[in-house]
Design a protein that fits this description.
The chain is α/β, with parallel strands linked by helices. It has helices spanning 2-22, 95-99, 104-116, 124-131, 151-163, 185-193, 213-231, 247-256, 289-294; strands at 28-31, 35-37, 45-48, 50-52, 58-68, 74-76, 79-82, 84-85, 101-102, 120-121, 137-138, 141-148, 169-172, 197-200, 237-239, 260-266, 269-271, 278-282, 303-312, 320-323. It folds into two domains: 2-66 and 306-323, no CATH class; 71-300, TIM Barrel, CATH 3.20.20.370. The strands form six sheets. Strands 7, 10, 12, 13, 14, 15, 16 and 18 form an eight-stranded parallel sheet that branches. Strands 1, 5, 11 and 19 form a four-stranded antiparallel sheet that branches. A two-stranded antiparallel ribbon has the order 2-4.
Length: 325
């Protein structure tokens, strides 16, 4: 009887603590039972016996966050488009390279601002889960994409993304992998294991608006199969080289088993129906921070949620010893 009363008392205490935590700012809190240390003993080495209330051998963690609720047929979500993250070359000697290059310090500032402003990076896997009704999106969702697979994707962009806890989608031209200025197979595997979604960008960066249906199929199928063999899982997202495509290209992607494709058109609105023509927000490296911020548009409405995680109570030795100073 006394044991049952103790459990009821403990449950009431946990409930009161949870109510209190729900009124706090967003943070991760641990609901723990009261502890009563044994009286200190004046010895050079003394045992500290900790008595804990009965919580059923569990710890309770309460987390508050905001999410974009399920059910919307379309989302307003910026898909950023990067190419090089490097010191831009001279305008005179390489105008195209200049327009595609974001300096590392600018990329760092942009990621700093996104992190400080509460943006949450997501992949297309998460966007698929949202549209299927399986998982809500975090508040202020954003997709970061990096095209072509240049070596600085791994040496510069990847470490900065990791430092912020960010993910990204890397569109890889498989025929360029292991070349001098491009990522290696080992680097692709490491990034894939590190949370970067690896996606397809054809075998040779061909203009798919000008190739035959057979050639288009070869580009999209061989690239997909090569990446899947390397990574050991399916690859279903695609980027059109230079943003060029036709209705025939979309037909080839469908037949090859792709689920989405991005263009170079400017747009932040996306739905399942137009998932083979999703637009992006170009980050060319010449824009100011204010322009970068303005190009992202407004945020989708979000709602607060509360998650209570229950984990086994950590097991400690029966006695802990303290060395007195």
């Amino acid at each position: 009887m006394g044991h049952a009363i103790g459990r009821v008392s403990t449950a009431a205490t946990l409930l009161l603590a949870t109510v209190y935590l729900l009124q706090a700012d967003d943070m991760r809190q641990t609901v723990v039972a009261a502890v009563a240390p044994a009286p200190a003993v004046s010895l050079p080495i003394s045992p500290i016996v900790v008595a804990q209330a009965d919580t059923g051998g569990r710890e309770y963690f309460v987390r508050r966050s905001r999410v974009v609720p399920l059910g919307a047929p379309s989302v307003s979500l910026p898909i950023l488009m990067y190419h090089y993250v490097r010191r831009p070359p001279s305008r005179r000697s390489d105008m195209l390279g200049f327009k595609l290059s974001v300096a590392p310090e600018d990329f760092q500032k942009q990621m700093d601002w996104l992190h400080a402003s509460g943006f949450h990076t997501v992949t297309f896997h998460q966007l698929r889960a949202y549209f299927s009704g399986a998982e809500a999106l975090p508040s202020r969702p954003i997709v970061i994409t990096v095209d072509d697979g240049y070596r600085d994707l791994y040496t510069t962009a990847f470490p900065i993304l990791q430092a912020h806890g960010f993910t990204a989608v890397a569109y890889i031209v498989t025929g360029f992998v292991d070349r001098a200025e491009y990522v290696t197979r080992a680097q692709l595997i490491e990034m894939d294991r590190g949370g970067i979604e690896i996606a397809s960008h054809t075998v040779s960066h061909a203009d798919l608006s000008r190739t035959s249906f057979g050639s288009t199929m070869a580009e999209v199928v061989q690239s997909k199969q090569w990446l899947e063999h390397l990574l050991g899982h399916s690859v279903v997202d695609f980027a059109y080289p230079s943003g060029k495509f036709t209705s025939q290209t979309i037909q080839a992607l469908r037949q090859a088993g792709y689920d989405t494709a991005v263009t170079t058109r400017t747009s932040i609105g996306h739905s399942v129906l137009d998932r083979y023509e999703w637009g992006r927000v170009r980050v060319g490296g010449g824009e100011s921070m204010q322009e970068f911020m303005d190009n992202l548009g407004g945020s989708m409405p979000s709602v607060p949620i509360v998650n209570v995680d229950v984990e086994p109570l950590a097991v400690y030795p029966e006695h802990h010893y303290r060395q007195d100073a």
